[in-house]
Amino acid sequence: MEKSQTFWDKNAGRYDLFMRKDAAAYAQLYGLLRPAVRRKTALELATGTGLIAKNIVSSADHIEATDASAEMIAEARRDNRSTKLHFSVQDMFHLPYADESFDVIIVANALHIVPEPQNALSEIRRVLRNDGVLVAPTFTHADNSFFGRVKAFAMKLAGFPLHSRWTSEEYLAFLRENGWTVQKSTVLKASFPLTYAECAKQKEL
């Protein structure tokens, strides 16, 4: 994780500018997330500068928003005006929360950039309530055109920590294979296809 954390620390100050290209897709994403967190206690992993958390916190009872990058969290805290939103530096593979602490866990555009994402899902399973919801939107690079694949390759050369390249179908299968029932999914049009998934814990792994 140390190499990718350095990448995010270095790019924290320009992250919001970089994400403007996908503003329309993110507006759709917020619309999907607000009902999922309404009157719920939520945990967001890999929050970055807090773009998602800040846009949906008015619907939630409380959001804990975390990231492994201290610089990202510093950026997120700068303009946090909600008493219902708390930012902290945490490792998604080793969370400090008790079992079954949250109604909803959000991990957006992160599972494709961490090594061994199945281990992150295992830790998410631990801290999510048994009747809770995992919301895991992820860029599915392998769905994209030749131009998109070239762009992904260029990003990787620049140091972007891309570990998994799924199609949308492969990503949903990955979730199912690791203990989750996909209850809702859709693909949002963005710079890379953004596969939105809402999941419940499978009763038996």
UniProtKB/TrEMBL annotation:
Q: Which GO molecular function annotations are given, in alphabetical order?
A: S-adenosylmethionine-dependent methyltransferase activity
Key words of the record: Methyltransferase, Transferase
Q: Which InterPro entries match?
A: Methyltransf_11 (IPR013216), SAM-dependent_MTases_sf (IPR029063)
Signal peptide position in this chain? Answer: none
User: Taking every annotated instance into account, which residue ranges of this chain make up the domain Methyltransferase type?
Assistant: 43-135
Lineage: superkingdom: Bacteria
Residue stretches spanning the membrane: none
Q: Name one GO biological process term.
A: methylation
**Name used for this protein in its record:** Class I SAM-dependent methyltransferase
